[in-house]
């Protein structure tokens, strides 16, 4: 098989496609808030890492794009009792 062939997906078909997004949140401004926000996100299938910064109220999520998408991450944030903010 030619590795430069774009149709040669044999070796990569089962590999994760890692993406990282930055989500601004509202009310995520203490350590307890970080825990409350992190746990539901880590339960989403495909999420590998969640880093939350209470000072900036941002959350960085690394996830496998083959298993989940940004709307599911936003739903998990809403389930945690927080909400995505309009701007970063």
Explain briefly what this protein structure is.
With 88 residues, the protein is an alpha+beta fold. It is built from 2 helices and 4 strands, in the order βαββαβ. A 4-stranded antiparallel beta sheet has the order 2-3-1-4, covered by helices on one side.
Describe this structure in words.
There is one protein chain. The protein has a domain of 43 residues. Helix content is 25%, strand content 28%. The chain is built from two helices and four strands, in the order βαββαβ. The protein is elongated, with a radius of gyration of 16 Å. The model has no long low-confidence stretch (mean pLDDT 85).
Rg, please? 16 Å
Major sheet strand order:
2-3-1-4
Largest sheet: 4 strands, antiparallel
| Count of strand segments | 4
State the order of secondary-structure elements, H for helix, E for strand: EHEEHE
Shape descriptor: elongated
In angstroms, what separates the terminal alpha carbons?
45 Å
The portion of residues assigned to helices is: 25-40%
Total count of helical runs of at least 4 residues:
2
Averaging pLDDT over every residue, what do you get?
Answer: 85
Strand content: 25-35%
Q: What is the SS-derived class?
A: alpha+beta
The low-pLDDT segments are none
């Amino acid at each position: 098989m030619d590795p430069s062939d774009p149709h040669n997906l044999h070796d990569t078909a089962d590999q994760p496609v890692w993406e990282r997004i930055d989500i601004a949140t509202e009310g995520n401004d203490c350590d307890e808030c970080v825990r409350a926000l992190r746990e539901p996100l880590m339960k989403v299938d495909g999420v590998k890492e969640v880093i939350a910064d209470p000072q900036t109220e941002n959350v960085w999520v690394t996830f496998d794009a083959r298993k989940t998408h940004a709307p599911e991450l936003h739903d998990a944030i809403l389930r945690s009792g927080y909400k995505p903010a309009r701007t970063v």
